[in-house]
């Protein structure tokens, strides 16, 4: 008889969306459980402060360029003067000022790139095709950089984890064909064994106070088979309503 189990779970990868800049939510363009597409705009953080920062940085760069051009012309003029008209120290000072302005200009350019990046981060977009979940945001909420905002279920990543008793593992192998029956609507899906778990936790074993293994007493007449997780990839699930965490029955063809 083909190995099977009723203890299967629908799973999917979850993309956690985190704020990269701080500010108030100016636009909230989604609702909980909504389907979204990759790169779709989800929300907008008030960009005012970041736009001002960018313009200030650009003004600072323009001022430094003006100072640099003036210092460069001054150095060129002084370099043509005789040693009687200008001392060696004055010439070195002019060169040092030009070098200092060059470094300040490079630093200012970096600040502009950072300001542009922060401004772009006020628009938060979906990294995947999927479904919004755990949305507790409201327009006007203040969010902090680094804070988790919401999660998106990646609709291109559905799979099944089947917990199979060790006594049924003999003929299970990667690429075995699999039939998955959903508990929610009895719909059958096809798939393949993608991988087989290599280790499970031993609840009866732990380290004691003296770093020696401490094994809990058990009852030899009650011997329950351990369950091994089997990862199953799914085929042709377009249009199928899958909910991660729900259960299913899994039949594996040996």
UniProtKB/TrEMBL annotation:
Q: Which gene encodes it?
A: macA_1
The residue ranges of the Multidrug resistance protein MdtA-like barrel-sandwich hybrid domain are: 14-153
Keyword field contains Manganese? no
Regions annotated as coiled coil = 54-118
Q: Which family does it belong to?
A: Belongs to the membrane fusion protein (MFP) (TC 8.A.1) family.
Q: Which InterPro entries match?
A: AaeA-lik-b-barrel (IPR058634), MdtA-like_BSH (IPR058625), MFP_Efflux_Pump (IPR050393), RND_pump_MFP (IPR006143)
Q: Which UniProt keywords apply?
A: Coiled coil, Membrane, Transmembrane, Transmembrane helix
Q: Do the record's keywords include Membrane?
A: yes
Instruction: Provide the protein name.
Output: Macrolide-specific efflux protein macA
Q: Name one Pfam family in it.
A: BSH_RND
Molecular function terms, GO-annotated: transmembrane transporter activity
Can you supply one Gene Ontology CC term for this chain's record? membrane
Annotated p-hydroxybenzoic acid efflux pump subunit AaeA-like beta-barrel domain residues: 157-252
